[in-house]
Design goal:
The complex is a heterodimer of chains A (about 60) and B (about 400). Chain A has one domain: 2-Layer Sandwich (Alpha-Beta Plaits). Helices cover about 15% and strands about 25% of the residues of chain A. Chain A has two helices and four strands. Chain A has a two-stranded antiparallel ribbon with strand order 1-4. In chain A, strands 2-3 form a two-stranded antiparallel ribbon. In chain A, a hairpin with a 4-residue loop joins strand 2 and strand 3. Chain A is globular, with a radius of gyration of 10 Å. By secondary structure, chain B is an alpha/beta fold. Chain B has three domains: about 200 residues, FAD/NAD(P)-binding domain (3-Layer(bba) Sandwich), CATH 3.50.50.60; about 120 residues, D-Amino Acid Oxidase, Chain A, domain 2 (2-Layer Sandwich), CATH 3.30.9; about 55 residues, no CATH class. Helices cover about 30% and strands about 30% of the residues of chain B. Chain B contains eight helices and 18 strands. In chain B, the strands form three sheets. In chain B, strands 1, 2, 8, 9, 10, 11, 17 and 18 form an eight-stranded mixed β-sheet that branches. Chain B has a seven-stranded mixed β-sheet with strand order 6-5-13-14-15-12-16. In chain B, strand 10 and strand 11 form a beta hairpin. In chain B, helix 1 runs parallel beside helix 2. The longest helix of chain B has 30 residues. The termini of chain B are far apart. The chains are: A alpha+beta (about 60), B alpha/beta (about 400). The interface between A and B is medium-sized, with 24 and 34 residues.
Chain lengths: ~60, ~400
């Protein structure tokens, strides 16, 4: 079964960079006003979800 | 565009590097992806007064309040006080970090460094052999190439520059503090003390801070060790604390921000044509999460080494390694020591923290620092903390 990928809520993200710094696949980058996930690189490990201080990252069902 | 050095990021580490590089005769460009230096303020805004003697900042516009000391509260409320009288009057300031960053940038500009805002580094310029020749960036929506002999990664906790150069800067969650922070108005902070609150319920693997900027305004924040965190935990625990604290519960937010602070061991910071400084180089005290004084120290060293490199036109790793040797001598040993203390502290439950605080509540500290605190703990608990003794040499 394919692992769920993650998504950053544009409304909630405050651009602290925590998710970017822990992502083992460099699959998150800072965009304009919020971080975003590069889906092709994401392996769905979920580390970023746990790390987010404001709960802005969640799983998406493929 | 052609420079000797391009610095990616205009925080304290970037600007101090730029200043000292420019003063040594290098042609320096600093690029910043944001539209204003020093904003947003991702910081608790506390700094040690040891910077007084460094002469890096003019005037006092950047100082919000001079502190009389620090108070550390154990989970059961037992308080350990480190006051100025005990510590040779060397405590700290609560600062306006936005003004502070602008002041450091201004000093770099006066020294001859150029700055470009709204300019996001998107990659490195490499030659056919993989040699680094500068930075590719987006200036507003325009793609530009900035050629330079040295690229300085001062691009913060989310640093890309190191990775583009092949340095693994990925943090383990156990080496990252996940933070949330308010500046609150209408609070009641009469005492000029910075307060730290510990406890697994309050802030697992971290602490809550209350840093008063004046009598009715304070920077109030939390760090939670990311491997002990849950989604959104930092904000939830901080809100809970504020609602339950008599001084803070009527506070209203002037700003709310999230942050991330590396609390890691020293890493590799130099390759051919590349240097990393500040949070990008993980140069943060693993116990306190403080990085400002470190950034000033390492920035000066980096700038001086860049000056020499430009003079000799030698940009290889071996030459630039002088920077890494010098910064590791200045703060690397302390970081290693405090990283180990962090690991030991994490093994303590709340009951142990209460006991330690109780034994220190009347202690006369002779040094206002984590080292002073560790010394006191070892003095009081030689057996419990035997593992800490060798660390005090660093």
């Amino acid at each position: 079964m394919e692992r769920h990928k993650v998504e950053v809520s544009q409304e909630k993200c405050l651009m602290c960079g925590g998710c970017v710094s822990v992502c083992p696949k460099d699959a998150i980058e800072m965009g304009e006003g919020h971080a975003f996930v590069i889906k092709e690189r994401c392996i769905g490990c979920g580390i970023c979800i746990k790390v987010c201080p404001v709960g802005a990252i969640h799983e998406v069902v493929p | 565009m052609r420079y000797d050095v391009v610095v990616v990021g205009s925080g304290p580490a970037g600007s101090v590097t730029a200043r000292f590089a420019a003063e040594s005769g290098a042609k320096v460009l600093v690029i910043e992806r944001r539209r204003e230096i020093g904003v947003p303020v991702l910081c608790g805004e506390g700094i040690s007064r040891k910077i007084d003697s460094w002469g890096m900042l003019d005037g006092d516009k950047w100082i919000a309040r001079k502190m009389d000391g620090a108070r550390i509260y154990a989970p059961n409320g037992t308080m350990v006080k480190l006051s100025a009288e005990q510590a040779g009057n060397e405590t700290g300031y609560v600062i306006y970090r936005d003004v502070f960053d602008k002041e450091l940038a201004r000093k770099a500009m006066v020294a001859g460094a150029e700055y470009m805002m709204n300019t996001k580094a998107v990659g490195l310029i490499k030659d056919d052999n993989g040699g680094i020749k500068g930075v590719k960036a987006l200036h507003f929506d325009e793609e530009i190439e900035i050629k330079a002999d040295i690229v300085v990664g001062a691009d913060g906790v989310e640093s890309r520059v190191g990775k583009w150069a092949g340095i693994n800067t990925t943090l383990r969650p156990k080496d990252l503090e996940s933070c949330a922070q308010y500046t609150l108005a209408n609070v009641d902070c009469q005492d000029a003390y910075v307060d730290f609150f510990l406890g697994k319920e309050k802030a697992p693997g971290g602490y809550i801070w209350v840093f008063p900027k004046d009598n009715d305004t304070a920077n109030v924040g939390i760090g939670v060790l990311a491997n002990l965190s849950k989604p959104g935990m930092a904000k939830e625990l901080l809100d809970k604390f504020i609602a339950s604290d008599d001084r803070l519960k009527n506070g209203q937010p002037l700003r709310f921000l999230a942050g991330a602070v590396p609390v890691a061991r020293p890493i590799e910071t130099v390759r051919d044509n590349i240097m990393l400084v500040g949070d990008a180089a993980r140069q943060v005290d693993p116990i306190t999460g403080g990085g400002l004084t470190h950034s000033l120290e390492v920035g000066k060293i980096a700038g001086e080494v860049i000056g020499k490199a430009v003079e000799e036109q030698n940009f290889c790793r071996e030459f630039l390694m002088e920077y890494e040797r010098r910064w590791k001598k200045a703060i690397g040993k302390k970081m290693e020591r405090n990283y180990m203390v962090k690991e030991i502290m994490l093994s303590f439950d709340d009951k142990t923290l209460n006991m330690l605080a109780d034994s220190l509540k009347d202690y006369k500290f002779d040094e206002f620092s984590t080292k002073g605190l560790i010394k006191a703990l070892v003095t009081k608990h030689p057996t419990l903390l035997a593992r800490l003794v060798p660390l005090l040499r660093a």
